[in-house]
């Protein structure tokens, strides 16, 4: 699956929320998209996953402008006021909700098994906003990837939780290696510290994404 954002922009209540931006990402690839805080990271994530129709430009999936297919095959992870869980929710409730959304068993046994697999059993009652940053991002990303039709993950600013530049890049690479398309939106990280291709909001000529999984013959 290939997703192409072609000159996508979004207007905001006080001007341009997302300046014209282009990007191409294919399953098995990974790319970071950097934009200064407040310049439309979440707006781009919403457009890229088919949840928001851009004011100019378009997003296509395998050459077709099919927003329903984009929504079905993509997940926007931990986007503030969009897909991020309510901060006061205990971790076990967040896990149960995400398992149910993925049409998977979400009873106490299933939740306990998943938390144990992430070495988070001791954090079952912890508020999600109090979970260590790397654990939070991994948990929410892994849960989104469990959805049966998801083929693209868009992580919304994991760098807002931590200054670490090893945890979330490794996580993103793992999911791309498994064959998903992975886009990581960032705002505060120093891009010079990343050993990944970095695209930028507001630009049309972007670097190629990094291939992490073998291409599947059509």
UniProtKB/TrEMBL annotation:
Domain of life of the organism encoding this protein: Bacteria
Residues spanning the signal sequence: none
Gene3D superfamilies (UniProt xref): P-loop containing nucleotide triphosphate hydrolases (3.40.50.300)
GO molecular function: ATP binding; ATP hydrolysis activity
Positions of the ABC transporter domain: 21-77
SUPFAM superfamilies given in the database record: P-loop containing nucleoside triphosphate hydrolases
InterPro entries named among the record's database cross-references: ABC_transporter-like_ATP-bd (IPR003439), P-loop_NTPase (IPR027417)
Pfam annotation, one family: ABC_tran
Descriptive protein name: ABC transporter
Annotated organism of origin: Prauserella marina
Lineage of origin: Bacteria, Bacillati, Actinomycetota, Actinomycetes, Pseudonocardiales
């Amino acid at each position: 699956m290939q997703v192409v954002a072609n000159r996508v922009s979004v207007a905001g209540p006080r001007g341009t929320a997302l300046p014209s931006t282009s990007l191409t990402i294919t399953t098995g690839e990974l790319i970071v998209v950097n934009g200064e805080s407040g310049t439309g990271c979440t707006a781009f994530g919403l457009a890229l996953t088919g949840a928001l129709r851009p004011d100019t430009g378009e997003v296509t999936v395998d050459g077709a402008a099919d927003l329903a297919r984009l929504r079905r095959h993509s997940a926007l992870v931990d986007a503030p006021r969009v897909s991020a869980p309510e901060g006061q929710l205990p971790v076990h409730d967040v896990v149960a909700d995400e398992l149910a959304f993925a049409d998977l068993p979400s009873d106490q046994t299933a939740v306990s098994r998943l938390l144990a697999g992430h070495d988070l059993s001791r954090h079952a009652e912890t508020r999600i906003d109090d979970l260590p940053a790397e654990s939070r991002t991994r948990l929410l990303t892994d849960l989104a990837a469990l959805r049966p039709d998801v083929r693209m993950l868009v992580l919304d600013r994991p760098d807002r939780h931590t200054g670490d530049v090893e945890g979330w890049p490794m996580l993103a690479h793992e999911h791309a290696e498994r064959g998903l398309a992975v886009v990581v939106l960032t705002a505060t990280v120093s891009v010079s510290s990343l050993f990944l291709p970095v695209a930028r909001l507001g630009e049309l000529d972007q670097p190629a994404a990094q291939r992490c999984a073998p291409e599947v013959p059509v």
